[in-house]
Amino acid sequence: MARIDPNNPSPRCAACRQPPRWCICAGLTTLACPLRIDVLMHRNERWRPSSTGRLIKRVFPDSGQHFTPENGRLEADAIRAPGRELLVLHPAGEALSPGLDPATLQVLLLDGSWSEATHLRREVSGWGRLVSLPMTGESRYWLRTQQEADGRFSTVEALMFLLAALGLEAEHKELNLQFELLVYAGLRARGRKELAEKFLETSPIRGTHADLIAQLNVSRPR
């Protein structure tokens, strides 16, 4: 069902946040994951259609989604999962140790713009072990400017690197497909048809979600 975003009066799907014309909910697959996943989102991300933090909650319904409050601070105990080691993913952290069991871990992802994520890191200082991953290649997050900056990836891409590092290949593959759908639909919703087609040329959703993409591209009456 479409809803009205208070910061953007155009109707959007209440789930995927795309305009109804470009809704991608028909392609959604949800998964369980042995890794406990929590996302701390800057409150400005709540209504941003390009946010990838919300996508994580859609693909992994058991994950936690938290927003920074207008006033005060979040307490670590409101997020920490008992019996698991808390890892806070950030480029400034130490290298991830090999051989970790995902079932014993909880990861906290920081979601916001580059400056907002820096602020979030200060907010969660001391909550858990700050870890980083060797993230290589180019970002596929063509909805923002990561692809123009070396070493900058979206929140969901950081999680994909972590899933791969922990050997969670099925979870990594499905999250990647959902991410690619989000980016493609977002580009089309912005009227960037040529850029969307260029993005699609190297995207796995050309094969896995061909029917959905064809449906999205059916001409509709204005």
What can you see in these coordinates?
This protein has one domain. Helix content is 31%, strand content 19%. It contains 7 helices and 7 strands. It has helices spanning 53-59, 114-123, 155-165, 169-189, 193-201, 205-208, 210-216, and strands at 2-5, 8-13, 36-41, 64-67, 85-95, 105-111, 129-132. The strands form 2 sheets. Strands 4-3-6-5-7 form a 5-stranded parallel β-sheet. Strands 1-2 form a two-stranded antiparallel ribbon. The protein is globular, with a radius of gyration of 17 Å. Mean pLDDT is 87; it is low at 1-5.
- Nearest-angstrom radius of gyration? 17 Å
Report on the biggest sheet. Answer: 5 strands, parallel
Distance between the termini: 19 Å
Low-confidence region ranges = 1-5
Structural class: alpha/beta
Provide the spatial order of strands within the biggest beta sheet: 4-3-6-5-7
Count all strands and give the number: 7
* Helix share, percent: 25-40%
> From N to C, what is the helix and strand string?
EEEHEEEHEHHHHH
Overall pLDDT score: 87
Q: Overall 3D geometry?
A: globular
Percentage of residues in strands: 15-25%
Q: What is the total domain count?
A: 1
Number of H/I helices: 7
Oligomer: single chain
